[in-house]
Design brief:
The complex is a heterodimer of chains A (189) and B (214).
Chain A lengths: L2 H18 L3 H22 L4 H17 L10 H30 L13 H16 L3 H12 L4 H8 L3 H23 L1
Helix pairs in contact in A: 1-2, 2-3, 3-4, 5-8, 6-8
Chain B lengths: L2 H10 L10 H23 L5 H4 L3 H24 L13 H26 L8 H8 L1 H13 L5 H23 L5 H21 L1 H5 L4
Chain lengths: 189, 214
Amino acid sequence: MTAADRDDKAEWRRLMTAAQDADGASYRRLLQELQPVLRRVVARRWRGTAEDVEDVVQEVLLSIHAVRHTYDPARPLMPWLMAIVHHRVADAARRSGRRVAEFAVGNLEETFGEIAAKSPSESQADGDALRRAVSDLPSGQRRAIEMLKLREMSLKEAAATSGMSVTALKVAVHRAVKRLRATMRRDED
Amino acid sequence: MDTKRLIEELAKSAQPVRRLPRPEYRLLFWLATTLPTVLLIAWAAGIRPDLAAKTTEPLFIIQVSAALLTAVSAAWATLSAVVPGEPRWKLAVPLIPFGVWMAAIGQQCWSEWRLFGAAGMEFRPDPACIPAIAVIGAAPAVIMVTLIRRGAVLQPRLTVFLGALAAAALGHFGLRLSHPTDAGLMVLVWQVGTVAGLSALAALCGRAIAKPLA
């Protein structure tokens, strides 16, 4: 480790401590400085596309935000941070494994004489597929979708119920919808 | 949403947070709130009349102390597990007192076997131990769940298993003070079995109990 690395890490500890005390500027600077580091670490551990890596980096940032109260300023920041990264990468690997398994089944070769309009049983199958896709979402995204889209709660109500911030809820819904679209598109193919 | 915008949103929504105290302080809080409750319940249920005599038996003292230490170390491991970056060896610490506890019960079973043979070893149904440990361990369990949920739950099943082990072992400790069953096999099957069973059951519901990091 170089002296510059050591200085960076001491500075990040200071910024994190300030962020815990609601110093938005320090928090912004910390997350901006951590962003390339996180991207590098995630890319080394996670062999996905650049978009997948960015997804995991964003999940790490959201996790940092959600559990920033668990950081002890008396201790080094990096072990705390890397434990969160490790957890997020493992989570992404699990989800990806599940997706690969579904993809393998969903792409068995089939031949159809004609493409007909959807029958009631196909609509039922779509509903089932959507329910399955929702249940496969990471728990935070699933909770956000259930509260905001299925139970039609307001952002404020959902934030009060879940303990998540409004920002985290917005991001979770955005990412859940993106993931659901991709899953449903893959199922249609 | 791109990452830059996400960072902006997160920075804008930064509120002051109440820092999580170190696991050791949280452990002291758990012990200070739960140990008196357990002793109170044991007292209300009736302290066993031979307790003074039992305290002169080294094997009884080792078993009860090891059960208490298992509870304390499992609680410490649980509270460390919900702090990202805490060393992983802390999660294995409860194995030491648990090993001593099992060895002491094993030694007692072996002595009874040598003295009385298989036919002479006391074993009868005593299912009352199950609700008794659950009731005595209820307050420690509820407080432990509250403490777990304040942290960052990265491994819900392991965390809840350790937390349940802490509560159930403390429940067992309370039971030994009031319940006069001492036969090695009885303690092993009905009491230690209940501690293990409750811990495993809780671990199965880990995600529902612990509110894992989303």
